[in-house]
Design a protein that fits this description.
It is built from six helices and eight strands, in the order αββαββββββαααα. The strands form three sheets. Strands 3, 4, 5 and 6 form a four-stranded antiparallel sheet that branches. Strands 1-2 form a two-stranded antiparallel sheet.
């Protein structure tokens, strides 16, 4: 079965392009857009602007940026606050806030500077990347995962799976050689290296079910 575009993007390992700052993960926007176009060459994005044609919306709580991506007949919108290096919301004027310094064991007063064009630009491009994640690209980053889910139909069977399989065949009083031959014939392969994780998982589940029935 052919993968959907969402699956193609979601299962792409983007870990080498991720940068981590202040506990948050950021994906290179230029790389992300280039990879996105490989799947959706007709894709378009839009930076939402306010009534003054500026790419941000500002009120007393801070500034927010918005983007919109259309691809494959689907449109997703996304938003992101404009933050400083400490992930504090930037406002029209600088302001002070208090944090607890664990190393010094005391509270400290710090300053969040006023919003500027550099911070807005970063927020817009990060918002675009987050927008692309709605289509699958790098979505797992936002769930706190380090790597995307692997498609078992393409992942090679691992040693632990094969050991578990042959452990179960012994309980069914089937020799390892006979089981190996049956598996090779079933999946039309001539080597255990050609077996996928999904195939072995199905066999293990089948044998575990037989063992439970026999008990």
């Amino acid at each position: 079965m052919e993968k959907s575009n969402f699956e193609k993007l979601y299962q792409k390992d983007v870990s080498e392009k991720v940068q981590k700052k202040e506990g948050l993960s950021y994906l290179s926007w230029s790389w992300a857009w280039a990879e996105f176009l490989k799947v959706y060459p007709e894709a378009q994005y839009e930076i939402i602007k306010n009534d003054f044609h500026l790419p941000y919306f500002l009120d007393s709580s801070g500034a927010m940026v918005y983007t919109k991506v259309t691809a494959g007949g689907i449109t997703h919108e996304m938003w992101l606050p404009v933050l400083d290096h400490a992930n504090k919301p930037m406002k029209k004027e600088p302001y002070k806030y208090t944090v607890y310094n664990k190393k010094k064991g005391q509270f400290e007063e710090r300053t969040c500077k006023a919003i500027d064009s550099f911070a807005i630009n970063k927020a817009v491009m990060r918002c675009l990347v987050k927008n692309l994640a709605m289509f699958g690209l790098g979505l797992y980053i936002y769930t706190g995962e380090d790597l995307p889910e692997k498609d078992e139909s393409e992942t090679p069977a691992n040693k632990q799976q094969l050991e578990r399989l042959f452990e179960l065949t012994e309980k069914q009083e089937i020799s390892a050689e006979d089981m190996k031959q049956k598996i090779f014939e079933k999946f039309a392969v001539n080597s255990s290296k050609q077996l996928t994780s999904g195939q072995i998982t199905d066999l293990i589940n089948e044998l575990e079910g037989k063992n439970e029935t026999d008990q």
